[in-house]
Amino acid sequence: MSPANQKKLTGARILIETLIEQGVSVVFGYPGGQVVDIYDELYKARRRLRHILTAHEQGAAHAADGYARVTGKVGAVIATSGPGATNLVTGIATAMLDSVPMVVITGNVPTDLIGRDSFQEVNITGITFSITKHNYFVTDVNELADTVREAFRIAKSGRPGPVLIDIPKDIQTAKAYFTPGAPAEPFEEPHAAADKIAEAAAMIAASQRPLLYIGGGAAANDLGPEIMEFAEKTDSFITCSLMGLSSVSNTCDRFLGMEGMHGRYAATKATVEADLIIGVGVRFSDRATGNTKKYAKNAKILQIDTDLSEINKNVIVDIGLVGNVKETFRLLSEATAAQTRPKWHARVMELKEQGRAIFDKINADALSTVTPRTVFDIINELKQPDTVIATDVGQHQMWAAQYSRFLQPRRFVSSGGLGTMGYGMGAAIGAAFATGKHTVLITGDGSFGMNLNELATAVTYKVPVLIVLMDNTVLGMVRQWQMLFFDGRCSATQLDRKTDFVKLAAAFGAKGERISTAEEFRAAFTRGWKYNGPYLIHVPVDKNELVLPMIPSGGSLEDLITSDERKTKK
Amino acid sequence: MNRYVLSVYVENKYGVLTRVASLFMRRGFNIDSLTVGETENPEFSRITITLRGDDYTCEQIINQLKKLHNVKKVKLISDGSKVERELMLIKVRNTPENRNDIMAAAEIFRAKIIDYSTDYMCVEVTGEPSKINAFIDVLQPLGIVEMCRTGAVALERGSSILVS
After folding, report:
1. Residue A163 is part of which domain span?
2. What is the pLDDT of residues A46-101, one digit of tens each?
3. Is B15's CB within 8 Å of A309's CB?
4. Are B18 and A126 within 8 A, CB to CB?
5. ipTM
6. Contact at 8 Å (CB) between A175 and A141?
7. How many domains does chain A have?
8. Interface of B with A (CB under 8 A)
């Protein structure tokens, strides 16, 4: 294994060469004692591989995640041992829960110091067992290149996810021969069996009221056009989970929106009335289904997923098609005959009308001077069709999900499964590096407070992030539960901080302004759109504003809340 | 509650046992026993897991195990077609009053007395877990001092092979 024309390279160099070989052009990270060799190689390779230094490792992980969601490529992040590695944990778990492909590199103390509680030593492979798709602890520099290749392969195969590689410092400095390779191909993944697909097609043909329910798996496979075509052909309609948002254009009149806890009325009601749910890349999460005993109780369920363990996990399905989602859906579509369903069509149109009326009523009842809907109406009007909307987690996230208008796939970047407050800043930066264009971040005063240090990153790299900070002075989502289900005992949700966000933006070297009318918001957004760097717009929101409609946790459509009872009682 | 026996064929690599064991904790599954050892191919180990639950839980466990990168094969070994064995070492008090009872029980259960001292006896017994349980029941009134069980291992009968 020592070809005469080859020189030995250090582990650190092999790592960088392999990252470049695997198609990485941007890596997010933060240096430290046990990755200083890797950073030395990054310096030497700076013209071939761009490194973005964040303010905190968590921000780097979220940035790699945001970058991966928008591009569909594998995101990459580097951190040092110990606290560097543990700071990544929330970011890794966020990517795991939302099936985002990511390769995470951590340094560790030299092999002979492992297990001695050495300075900045943690067992990060142990810590991340359950929040990675797979992880590695490298003990031989000769295996490093193939380990990195396999990590990329695992990250992007089947149901994507994060893979971590922990590299002790002595492996980074040890030398080995390096043979360049090609970008890893995903593991071969067959489509579902033909007889199962035929069975599913028969089930669709027999259905009077079919409804597509699409999720992150449809988004990851860029299935939007196929889904719309299928809905048109079969006279069926489309609902989605939070993770499925933006995979189908909102202009498609067969799209009913998100279903579930804060979903659209028509989507949720159609789920109750449908006689067939066709789940594509969804895991029937509790936030989407509510009480699974009452979920889609009139319907048979057909589920298409790449992950066998998702079949029958949360709801029991009638047919599970396991395999490559894109190919399986294509074959199913081919096997399904065109059919009109005029009664169902008319009924769904009726539901849409009812839903619109409910939504209009909710908005008429809104308390804020500039209502959430107004904020999004203006954003929708001023943003570009390909603009990425990133969010943090909370009420503002649900408003973004309800009101944003998506026209292109991979344009909604939000922590769905883990619900990570503080996700937004890093993710928006990653998204902006992916598109090279203005990115809108919708955040709240609570979430923004968690990772606002990444403003520094955005300023340094002139990242055009338009930060719409919806400030209601409270932790609105939890407070909403307290107001509705805990007799208004607002335990620890009253922030009432004295932060001046405009000055805060200025202190970081960013621009910011506070608005108090819709016209001011429009003007501010227009200014922000022209600014080359982070631009914060502080939007006051009434602290009693609720996200509606709402189905309480574990409830069903019968428990739907469409207005704030307390107000009407008052 | 049914009893299930799973054979899991895994790569013999760093942390595999932890990965498998932590999966059970993470998903809230309970297991009765887990044994692991090398196979005919030293690059692979075979884990035998016994658990109690319903078909839903068992299916979930199998599907989640299959997602682990180092797990190469998972098979539910059905009741009618397997040979299953467990080994137990059990130490009992050796007194003139119970000595004959212990030796009689050992003979009936085809157990072996592998250590004998003035105050204690250590007995080795092998068999299906239900037989081991029965042996414990018999020795219980005679004064068990300590015991340890290996957990079950199982193979399918006849020509069925986990990995060919």
Report:
1. 8-177
2. 999 999 999 999 999 999 999 999 999 999 999 999 999 999 999 999 999 999 99
3. no
4. yes
5. 0.86
6. yes
7. 3
8. 14-15, 18-19, 22-23, 26, 56, 59-60, 63-64, 66-70
- CA nearest to B23 within chain A: A130
Look at residues B11, B46, B77 and tell me which one is the last residue of a structural domain: B77
Do A425 and A499 have their domain in common? yes
Rounded to a whole number of angstroms, the distance from the CA of A87 to the nearest CA of chain B is 21
In this structure, are A412 and A320 located in the same domain? no
Residues B7 and B73 in one domain: yes
pLDDT at A569: 39
Q: Which two tokens stand for residue B24?
A: 């059970």
Q: Which of B56, B77, B98 is the last residue of a domain?
A: B77
Residues A375 and A488 in one domain: yes
CA–CA separation, A422 and A90 (whole Å):
10
Question: For residue B119, what are the domain limits?
Answer: 83-153
Q: Tell me the shortest Cα–Cα distance from A116 to chain B, in angstroms.
A: 18
| CATH code (residue A405) | 3.40.50.970
Encode pLDDT of A285-328 as tens digits.
988 888 888 898 899 999 999 999 999 999 999 999 999 999 99
- Residue ranges of E strands in A142-226: 162-168, 175-177, 210-214
pTM of the model: 0.94
In A210-341, alpha helices (H): 216-220, 224-234, 265-273, 286-289, 325-335
Inter-chain CB pairs, A–B, below 8 Å = 33
What letter would DSSP give residue A190? P
Residues B58, B32: one domain? yes
- The pLDDT of residue A2 is 59
Same domain for B145 and B94, yes or no, is yes
Q: Please give the mean pLDDT across all residues of chain A.
A: 95
Host H or E run for residue A320: strand A319-322
pLDDT attached to residue A37: 98
Q: Which pLDDT tens digit goes with each residue over B10-43?
A: 999 888 999 999 888 887 888 899 999 999 999 9
What string of DSSP letters covers A541-557?
A: --TT----SB--TT--G
pLDDT at A568 over 50: no
Q: Which residues of chain B have pLDDT under 50?
A: none
Helices (H), chain B: 16-26, 55-67, 99-108, 129-143
Quote the number of domains for chain B.
Answer: 2
